[in-house]
Amino acid sequence: MSEFLQFLFSGLTTGSIYAVSGLGLAIIYNASGVINFAQGDFLMIGGMATVALLAAGVPLPLAIVLAVLITVAVGACLQRFALAPAGDSDALALIIITIGASIFIQGIVLLLLDKNQHALASFSGDTPIAIGGASLLPQSLWVMGVGAVLVVLVAAFFRFTLLGKAIRATAANHMAAQLVGINTRFVLLVSFCLAALLGGLAGIVAAPITTTSYDLGLTLGMKGFVAATLGGLGSAFGAVAGGLLVGILEAMIAGYVSSAYKDAVPFVLIIVILLFRPQGLFGGRVIERV
Amino acid sequence: MKRALHPGLVATLVILVLLPFTFPNSYFFDVAIRVGLSAIAAIGLNLLMGFAGQVSIGHAGFLGIGAYASAILTSSYGWPPLAAMLGAAVLVALLAFLIAKPMLKLKGHALTIATLGFGIIVLIVLTNEGRWTGGPDGMSVGPLAVAGWQLGNEKQWYVLVALLLLVAIRLSLNLYDSPAGRALRALHGAEVAAKVAGIDTAAYKVRAFVISAVFASVAGSLTAHYSGFITPGLAGFLRSIELATMVVVGGMASTFGAVIGAALLTVLPQLLGGLESYEMVAFGLILMLTMIFLPRGLVPTLRERLRRAGK
Lengths: 290, 311
Prior knowledge:
The complex is a heterodimer. Chain A is mainly α. Chain A has eleven helices and two strands; from the N terminus they run H-H-H-H-E-E-H-H-H-H-H-H-H.
């Protein structure tokens, strides 16, 4: 039982990271119809920028704020300078642009920093907390806590603020949103910034656990995507549930079956889900217009 | 419009014959051979991406399976290289056929993600099944020998790869001009319209998928024998992206575009000194800029310009 609990903790921790990453993807997908392959790189930038700033002597709280700002700036640039100029290109072209952006960002980070893996020090020590025979690292609590707070804040943002409502309106119907006077260009920019903000924060709290390196984004982004697709791309709740599910499944497979193949879990899962329930576990029925 | 001598094919032949005379040393042959091998894989991927409008970012998976199947069949089972290459191609064709039907039911980004998943699963298997593949350290592969005669130096390899490249171009052009090819292009344009016109879109997509996988497998087998040593990186994500970039930059649905894309993206890293960071920055920039400014790729855009200028 304690073994199961241990795997569950580890799964919930990584699952929270995937959930926040998936949430960012779902926000961008809803607002613009773009699958952002650079989502994972937002997490990487958050972690790497914090590491670099700390190394430059900046105190941790300031480093975190600056790293998040850097990530948001990258998100804004991605929308404004890479995706906006492509205009109404088909989805294929936009996907390729975000893939290009992802590779580009990784190259820049590699150029500015280095190839090594960096570990950020845990925020509140490494003394494990014993719960029911299993141990939980304080950093795991940070990850789950920050993840939960972000999810609640995002939900509140979409429900109660004018800007959040404008994003939802744009997601529902781009043209109609423009007709009622919503600045959809601005909405797109905001949704990219929001996704980058989520990614940056998740990347920073996760860095002490996952360690961070320039190519971390690929795996995290892909798993975030699996999470979002699993939950049905349209739904924010689905992305979060999907993320936790992927994390827990991965931890269980690693614990009970084979740790070598744990990384294959999400990808096998995604193919199975796409084939048998393309609308995701929680998504509504998709009716395609031609 | 089937012509025995396509002008582009003749031009390629002339270039391939003349090119070696400009090479000062074997390094140039080496680069040319690698351009050729990539071009064969890119032509295959172009059939899928350009003609059928299906993005694959896991295509290096097929390349990796071809390479490793050749390596394992020749080293562990003593198959002659050609038989191993054929065996690898049959294996990949079967695998592609089996996964094509369910996978091609997916649309747009879902298919892209599924191909990515496929590529990563192949990579994980190649990395983990160490007793067959040598794991992350890779394995060595014997030289390409036909009936006791061994392909030794770069010049012989150049001739072989040049011939195979011509065959690949010819096959691709044939497919492009055939009724099947027109059907495939219609798929990219408007799948629903193609269906309404009575085209069995699913069957054609499966065919494009299998053919493109076989091209990749053959390129993989040859790469394995040529380089003499393979690592799972051959099936990696970056390699898949590289192939997709070649197709996108050269121009989707253009056979010669795929060749030019392969040449550009193989030579460019050489000019950048093989530094990974520059390579990634350059690849990323090229992908983005091409999609923003030349969404149809180099060759189709230039052809259009020339046609307009000629009028």
